[in-house]
Design a protein that fits this description.
Layout lengths: L1 E4 H6 L1 H11 L3 E5 L2 E5 L13 H11 L31
Parallel strand pairs: 1-2
Antiparallel strand pairs: 2-3
């Protein structure tokens, strides 16, 4: 953590801000004996900047869609697609 006084921050504001942007390190400014903490925000990568593994990990971390248990045509419970009737005629498209 970088610690500076308000006076020093005023003198070197742009240099200190550039350092924060590069390192992501938090800054503590002492103002009248009280600490003020500035923490840079971490920006997430856009999907275009991610590797395929990072995109997959992000998708897995989201978890299942709420209500997925209530899907009526769940393959595990609806076994109608397992039967075959040779007499069934299919439409020609």
């Amino acid at each position: 953590m970088i610690e500076v006084t308000a006076t020093d921050l005023r003198k070197d504001l742009f240099r200190i801000l550039d350092r924060l942007a590069e390192t992501g390190e938090p800054l503590r400014v002492m103002r009248r004996g009280r600490p003020l903490d500035l923490v840079p925000q971490v920006q997430e990568k856009t999907v275009a900047e991610m590797t395929p593994q990072e995109r997959f990990d992000r998708w897995v971390a989201k978890g299942p869609v709420p209500g997925f248990e209530d899907v009526p045509d769940d393959i595990d419970t609806n076994k109608s697609h397992w039967s075959w009737d040779p007499e069934t005629k299919f439409r020609d498209l």
